Amino acid sequence: MSGERTRILLVDVLPETAEDFEVAFDTKEAELVPVTATSVLEHTGGTPGERPPAVVVVGRRVTAPVGLVHALRPHPADLAAVVVATSVTDSRLTTLPILFSADLVRRVQDVRADRLPETARELMDGISRRRAEAVVRAAAQRQLVAGTVMSRQLGERLLGEFLTQAPIGALMLDDDGAVLAWNHRAAEILELDDHNSLRRPLAGLFPPDTRAALRQHLAAARGESSPGPDVVFERTRPDGTGQALRIAPQKVTDSEGRERVLVLAEDVTDRLYAQRKLAERTGHALLSAEVAAAMTAPGPLAERLHRCVRATADRLGADRACIWTLKPSGEPEPAACADADRTTGAGDLHPEHVDTSLVERIAAERRPHLDITPPGSPRAGAGAGAGAVRSRGSFAGYPLVSGGELIGVLTLNTRLALPGSTLSILESVADQVAVGIRQDRLLRRLRATTQALEHPLLPPRLPELPGFDLAARYHPFGSGLHIGGDFYDAFTTPDGRHVLALGDVCGKGPGAAAITGLVRHTLWAAAQHTTDPEHVLGLVNNALRRQNTPFCTLVYAVIDPPGGSSEGTARVRLASAGHPAPLLRRADGTAVPLDVRGPLLGVLEEMHHPVTEVDMRPGETLVLYTDGFTEGAGAADRREPEDLAALVAGHPVPAGAERPADGVVAALLEDAHAWWGERLRDDLAVLALTVLDGAAAAR
What is the mean pLDDT of residues 159-171? Predict the structure, then answer.
């Protein structure tokens, strides 16, 4: 074989990349040659397949890398290339895998430029291996043509001194696929000797289940003029260890015209196992990522668990993957299962498909379990006796534990043997599933607590007020786990007057909920004695100061029923504690903010809240709202009460409408969501009261 040193041509690479190559390659194994895109062709001239071996590294500064690679004419025997892909050139480089195989041309993203020396070495080794194989084939053919008499030579002697010393295993086979000769390397990797191996079929050195495929592979070489494809076959050595061999057959002819098969054999055990290990780790990483994505995705827990078991079954090649949760009694029950070809609902599981006894043991001991019992071995299963035969082969299970709490069990069934690394990836998957289930339970408890806290913040239902239409809307900011600081209330006092109140407590969450409850109940209790705004707001202020709570804004309205002052007219007394101005929509369709002002509650010890009196006639509407309608996104696109008044005035109220107030609050809420959109960062509460005319009130 040629002892030529492979050249690595560095085409317009960055200085730091050139330094990486200088560190990675010794001068004895490769010659580093810095070149430019315009001069690289001078170093790669000649007939492809006959040129000095070279690997071309195309740097990121080359503006037309695809055209350059075409001009280089890569060839398996002497030239390969690796191209640095940038954001500019990446889309154009997608054609390279279509035009050239991975052993000739590869691309490396610029963010992974540190892998360039490693990739170049892989390409360089591939060229060296292919050149060595070509030399071995040519030497074997020359020796056969020279008239070697096979029947008089045994083992290594047939192939001569050159092939005997070749670093690649070489074997000569007869028409029946029996071994006629071999070199030192073949004898080493296949444990061959003249006494036991001569005339032995090569396929006999491999397991029965692979012999037919190997015979077919060797037979195909007889009909091909070019070397047959490389195929990896695995076998077990006499010492019980595994071995993977790359078998490359080629037809050769001796001096008498007899066809033989020259087989080149290379031990790729370490390489294959490393690739499998990398693939296994990659698969485990992808499975972990899929499970994490599933458990953090929105939607019902059952759907997320089904995604997890589906990914686990697919990535680990399992016949069945199951997630079991615990009943209140502590007994495990399947929550989600995935078979090799489908996902199964918990209610569709057949008893013979599950290993309840093992699951119960894993749950009781809180310890993982790996059982690689061969298929058909006796072992107790669900609902079976001690001598039952389980149709599944291997079983693995891992307890789901989070925060010291046993959540359930993750199980895996497969007819194939499970590697010991299965428990490692199951541990990662089990941790993520357990945390996800526990978080879901905590969120459900928190949601229930939130709803329980929010429930007393609003009246169970709006009261029926004769002669009026009363409507309200409340929309807390957030997605169900938020307790808002906005509130409203409406009730009738013992003296027959109606009270409306709408306010906003400073802050959010449980603290705001507690203050809201304090304000509502204090206000209701105070109004049972007298509805006087000064008295009621004074008591609320004292209650807030006594508890040393944050401030609160509030608008308070006392309504005398129609007929209390004049026919069909309702007298309204309004007081405000730092709250946005109420709106009044007149019967003629115009709307204005009411000038009602006063100090915040919970701040000053002594204060005065002026009272504004308004007469409301049939068809007129009073609107109370919180500052979410004016400052829903903070300072951005702030709105004024006049803007809301214009909106209310522009909302048509059909003559004879049964729920005019409800139409107004619905229009305000819809407009707020349309105006703020996703920028909305505050609660929205609105309360409206419309005086009905006689006909509407009678309906």
Answer: 67
pTM for the predicted model, two decimal places: 0.51
- Distance CA(594)–CA(612), nearest Å, equals 9
Beta bridge partners of 266: 246
Q: How confident is the model at residue 601 (pLDDT cuts 50, 70, 90)?
A: very high
Report the alpha-carbon angle 551-517-452, nearest 5: 130
Q: Which has the closest alpha carbon to 400: 313, 314, 336?
A: 336
- Judged by DSSP in three states, 226 sits in coil
Where would I find the beta strands (DSSP E) of 578-696? 583-585, 591-593, 612-616, 621-625, 684-691
Question: Could you tell me if 469 and 622 are in contact, meaning their C-beta atoms sit under 8 angstroms apart?
Answer: no
191 to each of 128, 196, 264, 493, how far by Cα in Å?
A: 25, 10, 15, 104
Crossing angle of helices 660-676/641-650, nearest 10°?
A: 130
Helix (H, G, I), strand (E, B), or coil: what is residue 327? coil
Supply 510's token pair: 């449980």
By three-state DSSP, how is residue 618 classified?
Answer: coil
Phi-psi region of 383 (alpha: psi -120 to 50; beta: other; left: phi over 0): left
- Residue 467's nearest CA partner among 623, 660, 665 is 660
- Contact, 408 vs 325, CB < 8 A? yes
Ramachandran bin of 689, using left for φ above 0, alpha for ψ from -120 to 50, beta for the remaining angles: beta
**DSSP letter assigned to residue 281:** H
Q: Please name the residue that has the structure tokens 């107004």.
A: 664
Instruction: Write the pLDDT tens digit of every residue in 174-210.
Output: 888 888 888 878 888 898 876 778 888 999 999 998 9
C-alpha to C-alpha distance for 404 and 410, rounded to whole angstroms: 16
- Integer angstrom CA distances of residue 649 from 78, 586, 587, 591: 84, 9, 10, 5
Instruction: Give yes or no for residue 498 having a pLDDT over 90.
Output: yes
Residue 59 CA to residue 318 CA, distance in Å, equals 44
Interhelix angle for 116-145 vs 15-24, to 10°?
50
State the pLDDT at residue 329: 87
Transcribe 257-268 into DSSP letters.
S-EEEEEEEEE-
Residues 369/399, Cβ–Cβ less than 8 Å: no
Q: Which long-range contacts (CB under 8 A, 24 or more apart) does 537-546 make?
A: 537/575, 537/577, 537/598, 537/601, 537/609, 538/607, 540/601, 541/577, 541/601, 541/602, 541/604, 541/607, 543/518, 543/519, 544/515, 544/518, 544/519, 544/601, 544/602, 545/602, 545/605
Q: What separation in angstroms does the CA of 643 have from each of 473, 593, 609, 625?
A: 19, 10, 25, 13
Q: Is 299 left (phi over 0), alpha (psi -120 to 50) or beta?
A: left
User: Cα–Cα distance between 400 and 406 in angstroms, integer?
Assistant: 6
pLDDT > 50? residue 157: no
Evaluate whether 156 touches 133 at the Cβ level (below 8 Å): no
Strands 79-85 and 54-58: parallel
- Burial class from Cβ neighbours inside 10 Å (0-12, 13-18, 19+) for residue 489 reads buried
